[in-house]
Amino acid sequence: MKKKLLVLALALAFVGACSFTGPKVAFNLPNINGTQFDSAVNAKKQPVFLAFMATYCGYCKMSVPMIVELQNNFGSKGLKVVGVFSDGSADGPAAYAKEFGINYDVLYQGGQLAQEAKVNGVPHFVLLNKNHQIVRVWSGYSPDHNFAEEIQKVL
Predict the structure, then answer these.
(1) How does residue 21 score in pLDDT terms, banded at 50, 70 and 90?
(2) Cβ neighbours of 14 (radius 10 Å)
(3) Which helix (H) or strand (E) holds 134?
(4) Residue 9: its H or E element
(5) DSSP H or E run through 84
(6) Does residue 123 have a cis peptide bond before it, meaning omega lies within 30 degrees of 0?
(7) What is the third-level CATH fold of 20-154?
(8) Which positions carry the signal peptide feature in this UniProt record (predicted)?
(9) Model confidence pLDDT, tens digit, residues 43-53
(10) In angstroms, how far is CA 87 from the centroid of its own chain?
(11) Domain limits of the chain?
């Protein structure tokens, strides 16, 4: 019996270590810079890191330095970092981006995308591979998220 449990535990550990590939994500949203961001054009064949945020969220504000660092470390290596807000206008996200020194694309009107990505709260982070398939999801704030480790796998 113990041997069967050990074999089962090892099998489950192996399955848990395998990379997950979820559905393909495509989106076209307005950018606070006045342009339209189309994932098929603006991030063609690039992995994408989506950070779902809200201007009122304290944990989102605490996450911004980590996301800025991702842009600094991986933007030149091909990662497209994108902040997504559900706000209906650019005003709130634009002020937020300016206040916190955001150096990556900031999109708004992202409510439908958040719903499709099954975002139940913010902050919420989604990593897409070069084919824009979901490979990793993180919910909530934690300084221990393994963003860099997972990003290295999709570059």
Answers:
(1) confident
(2) 9
(3) strand 134-139
(4) helix 2-17
(5) strand 80-85
(6) yes
(7) Glutaredoxin (3.40.30)
(8) 1-19
(9) 999 999 999 99
(10) 17
(11) 20-154
